[in-house]
Amino acid sequence: MIMILNQKGEIMISRQYRDDVSRVAADSFRLQVIAAKEASSQPPVKRIEDCSFLYTRHRNMYFVALTKSNVNPALVFEYLFQKIRVLKAYLGEEFDENSMRNNMTLIYELMDETMDFGYPQNCAVDVLRLYINLGNVKPQDEPEPQQLTKQITGAIDWRREGIRHKKNEVYIDVLESVNLLISSTGSILRSEVTGRVQMNTKLTGMPECKFGLNDKLVIEKETAAGRKKSGVEIDDCTFHRCVRLGKFDADRTITFIPPDGEFELMRYRVNDNVNLPFRLIPAVQEEGQTK
Amino acid sequence: MSKYTHIISFFYPSRDIIRCSINLKVIANFSEKLFATHVVIKVPVPKNTSKSKIKNSFGRAKYEPEQNAIVWRIKRFPGKAECMLSADLELVRTVRPKAWARPPINVEFQVPMFTASGVHVRFLRVYDKAGYHTNRWVRYITKAGGYQIKI
Prior knowledge:
The complex is a heterodimer. Chain A is α+β, with helices and mostly antiparallel strands. Chain A has two domains: 2-143, Beta-Lactamase, CATH 3.30.450; 169-270, Mu homology domain, subdomain B (Immunoglobulin-like, Sandwich). Helices cover 27% and strands 32% of the residues of chain A. In chain A, a hairpin with a 5-residue loop joins strand 8 and strand 9 (188-202). By secondary structure, chain B is mostly beta strands. Helices cover 0% and strands 57% of the residues of chain B. In chain B, a hairpin with a 4-residue loop joins strand 4 (60-64) and strand 5 (69-78). The chains are: A alpha+beta, B mainly beta. At the A-B interface, strand 8, strand 9, strand 10 and strand 14 of A face strand 1, strand 2, strand 7, strand 8 and strand 9 of B.
């Protein structure tokens, strides 16, 4: 069961997907979690009697998932985060209790569409927008039912077919954040770079993209073929779910059919050979310390 | 009594003032074609700092008591450039003197078109049935996460 509670612990929205938990459970959540102060510092999972409460907050609202079975908590939290993301897309970044109350029917529709019998379904905003709208807004072109089924059940739920752009453009942003800690003697205690590749794609149709970084493992393979270049050793990376992981595992090529618009293609971490942009040489002298 | 001159000598309580000097050299370790923006260097100073005399080669540096630090802001820091800051501080002796914890110097910056990891995009190929041409733009930016130097 998924519930959305306000700050006082009153149920704003609740949707029961199975019969294992009843609405009465909200009372025990209110008493044991919301009434107990500083809920934010408490763990996000609470077990009361034989029911598990997994929750997260958006502004002053609690998004709670209740279950009696042994679920995968990572899955549940991912669903709750997706749910908030979807609601943000529909109601605005800073949606609150009021905007929730004004859009009850829409939210129930979204609850039904994103989850079935306790199993998460399609949570992609772009696709949900095709058939769930705020009443007055009608979709421009009604999608063919056949195409719709393909999208709901198909593998590529992040992109709909028939997208057209006059100009085909891709913007790539590589954003890095460098962490450094140097001791007072000048030795490096910690240096690390975390990076993100942010993309904005405006492409027609269902294009297949291949993306290449100067990843050491790939470069080494090419060096064997006669070219000499040094690559960067990427320690860790995660991808947007559109990237074919099987292909990456096999030969480290990054191939994907991108979603339309902005998305984060990948995140990575580099620990070795960090180019530190600034070098600081401090000297501090304290006098008159002796009595 | 008049035979004797009584000399009472004492130290003027100069111990009430403690001096502390900080010298800092900053070197930009990237190509001279590039520059960093929004550079903020926070040099911590003891809480009981009463006076400060700061000299710096470029940018603006100011003692900000609410931050317990000298905050040095440089809007545009060219690659390979070097700059200096020296500060002479006067500290007041407190009732119960505590050793200064010496928190680290913290640096914030942004360097466009630079990657600290050395990562760059080699290619992006787009294949579609229609076989159209795609325009691509790549931008890079490196920011400071926690960039700290202990003193």
